[in-house]
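Researcher: I need the complex structure. Ligand is 2-acetamido-2-deoxy-beta-D-glucopyranose. Inputs:
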Amino acid sequence: MKFTLASCVACTVLVSQVAAQTFQRLGTCPTLGCIFPPDQADFLPGQWFDIRLEVHAPQNGSERVSYAQPDGNFTFTIARDGQRGVPAAQFFNLSEPALQTWNFTWYEDLFAQAARTPSLVRVASKAYRKVALYTPGHYIATLSYQNGSVTQANWTVRDIAPRRRAKNTILFVGDGMTTNMITAARLIAHQNLNGKYQSLMAMDQFPVLGHQMTHSIDSFITDSANSATALYTGHKSTVNALSVYADSSRDPSDDPKVETIAELFQEIYRGGVGIVSTAFIADATPAALTAHTRDRSQYGQVVDSFLKGIYNYTWVNWTGPDVLFGGGAEQFYPNSRSFQGKNYYTEFANAGYNVILNNTALQSASNNSRTLGIFSVNNMAKWLDRNIYPANLNISSTAPDGSRGAATDQPGLKEMTLKALQILHTRHSQDGFFLMSEAASIDKQMHLLDYDRALTELLELDDTIKATIAYLESIGELNNTQIVVTADHGHGFDVMGSVDTRFLAAQTTDRAKRNAVGTYQNSGLSQYVRPNTSAPVGSDQNVVYSQGVNFPNNFDPRYTLFQGVAAFPDHRENYTVHKRGPRVPALNVTGFDSDDFYVNYVDAVTGFVINGTLPVSADQGVHSLTDVPVFTMGPCQADFGGVYNSIDVFYKMAACLGLSRTTPVPR
Ligand SMILES: *[C@@H]1O[C@H](CO)[C@@H](O)[C@H](O)[C@H]1NC(C)=O
Ligand SMILES: *[C@@H]1O[C@H](CO)[C@@H](O)[C@H](O)[C@H]1NC(C)=O
Ligand SMILES: *[C@@H]1O[C@H](CO)[C@@H](O)[C@H](O)[C@H]1NC(C)=O
Ligand SMILES: *[C@@H]1O[C@H](CO)[C@@H](O)[C@H](O)[C@H]1NC(C)=O
Ligand SMILES: *[C@@H]1O[C@H](CO)[C@@H](O)[C@H](O)[C@H]1NC(C)=O
Ligand SMILES: *[C@@H]1O[C@H](CO)[C@@H](O)[C@H](O)[C@H]1NC(C)=O
Ligand SMILES: *[C@@H]1O[C@H](CO)[C@@H](O)[C@H](O)[C@H]1NC(C)=O
Ligand SMILES: *[C@@H]1O[C@H](CO)[C@@H](O)[C@H](O)[C@H]1NC(C)=O
Ligand SMILES: *[C@@H]1O[C@H](CO)[C@@H](O)[C@H](O)[C@H]1NC(C)=O
Ligand SMILES: *[C@@H]1O[C@H](CO)[C@@H](O)[C@H](O)[C@H]1NC(C)=O
Ligand SMILES: *[C@@H]1O[C@H](CO)[C@@H](O)[C@H](O)[C@H]1NC(C)=O
Ligand SMILES: *[C@@H]1O[C@H](CO)[C@@H](O)[C@H](O)[C@H]1NC(C)=O
Ligand SMILES: [Zn+2]
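Model: Output:
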């Protein structure tokens, strides 16, 4: 009989394609035997990681097996570069870990979800904690289970020598920042004469530009948690996972961990670590530097991890960052959102930190102490509100001390970053520092379709980069410092023309209002940089800058940008700046489900309705697929040109800092 290999292969492919879609049993485990880190994983030599093995026994649904429980007899070997496999316990000189069992359920597709018929899976598992591979090469990890079934993972330890070429690294993350947004920000902040910009953004002047692909390990759209994991550990991961691979167990803190660049840098050099963000500081991008959890919303534990490293078992010898600046006071003052209800201002102060809560205190803080600065209860105020519409800061209960007060004295990204650099330089002038500085609200405001706020957050990032370069130059550290500016993912944003907002407001029907849009030659010129007509053309005085050369000087021109994103909830648009604070495009309304969102009329009363394209449960926009830019200057800049994967940003930074360990280190 002709063995139908071709059709059998096709049917396996079909099954796994279905199983790898909207819902997945476990994204990185298409078969019933799972190895984490999975096939295709890369490692920095000597990087600590955990191994998790799982064997699945689906009890019903399309993958049903005939036995009620995995037999628990699995063998796991590791073979280096074509050598014979060695049992992992022997390979890593560990005792064999204990067997664990649990169950989980999942939906195979939207029909199963609608019918509430989950598939049940029984699991047997083992975990090998805190291991490392020191010798570059290819390793085949082989799991044999359930009477001869086999899963293999091909791991690569990259050949990266421990040669330090940069003393310091500064990683700027423009959360959600795309090339399209940079182009739009340039248009509103920099004057153009006859098609030529008269000034450029700091990013425009970087010598090297690359593109990174943001694809997650098990889905093609990422969130900030798994993309931060890729940038900081060199390992792809799953949506909502911070510096771990996602296993199927219920406990979010037992998933297999991977050592981050901040942990490596502190362990190897005792160098300084700074973490700065305009988000609440437990948010994914800052969190993934020290937290290791499947669930990014474990905010209290994230804050604990900044101070103490990983909770429960020894991971790395983390001694805390030198600088931690951002929002998110609700995880610090004692309340139900702080870890175990504790007061983390006190916890940090007891560990020797100077604790500051406003910009005045930030400016006068000593550069000698480790410093915690928390400036608002949740995400920090936006540049547009701090600088143009300051009345919007007067919101009660935003004060970082947990009082009913308003957080009216907040620094911006530039103030936080410069202070962080002063502290890091003072405390680590010999051993160097690693600083991550995140412009978080580019993403947060893009989600809300508030393009004016998103683009000014981006301009604030650019202003911060410009000031950082000037500061490094002034202290003689510019040529020792690797500066990397990138994003973690994009949004489908672009500008397609301009809008005559006066004409739009004067029309009475939605269809007529759309005639206010000017495309191609009718787009005209940017009205956001108001020229000074009394100054000679081309002179420095040609533009009146109210907020410095990096920002628009007119936020409310008659002709605004015709701009938008590719996927959105129901909303109204009149294309003018939201003067009363970040916009609210869609609302859930009385009489309908709480996750059923409709256009918010007051968001743009003179505007017209744009019906949503996202599921009605979405009240804001979403991330998109686009590659994102990587701007680099300083040592190793030549390594960053071209198109590469998000994880390569980690390997390039780690290589430049010389973070490989090539001889075994005691656990
Ligand atoms: C466990 O599995 C191995 C091979 O996978 C087999 O050689 C061995 O006999 C099994 N042991 C038991 C107790 O079933
Ligand atoms: C393996 O570990 C044991 C104790 O944990 C230690 O005595 C032994 O020296 C180690 N062997 C190697 C080769 O590292
Ligand atoms: C898994 O589910 C089965 C049946 O529901 C139950 O008998 C068993 O105790 C469960 N095992 C675990 C580890 O929860
Ligand atoms: C699988 O079994 C679980 C538990 O018995 C049940 O709730 C679920 O509906 C079943 N799913 C299917 C697809 O049969
Ligand atoms: C493992 O992966 C590497 C890189 O993709 C490849 O060069 C190598 O041939 C693979 N080895 C095996 C045994 O599949
Ligand atoms: C960690 O320790 C806490 C407190 O002892 C405990 O509640 C929790 O279950 C532990 N988590 C893990 C993963 O061991
Ligand atoms: C961790 O590092 C600190 C500071 O260098 C040191 O005092 C401590 O002994 C280390 N602890 C361990 C367990 O290595
Ligand atoms: C800023 O914080 C200091 C304490 O560090 C406090 O004395 C001062 O009143 C605060 N200023 C404002 C405007 O809240
Ligand atoms: C950086 O510049 C200083 C002098 O400005 C020089 O002494 C040092 O060697 C330079 N370092 C590098 C890595 O080029
Ligand atoms: C909107 O949803 C939130 C959260 O579920 C709920 O608290 C609120 O009552 C809802 N509002 C209306 C008008 O349904
Ligand atoms: C656009 O809508 C906002 C909010 O409803 C309103 O305040 C503003 O005046 C409108 N702009 C124009 C130009 O009509
Ligand atoms: C928006 O959708 C509603 C139905 O949900 C429809 O009645 C209305 O005509 C649509 N409006 C536009 C401008 O497409
Ligand atoms: Zn986002």
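Model: Summary of the prediction. The mean pLDDT is 93.
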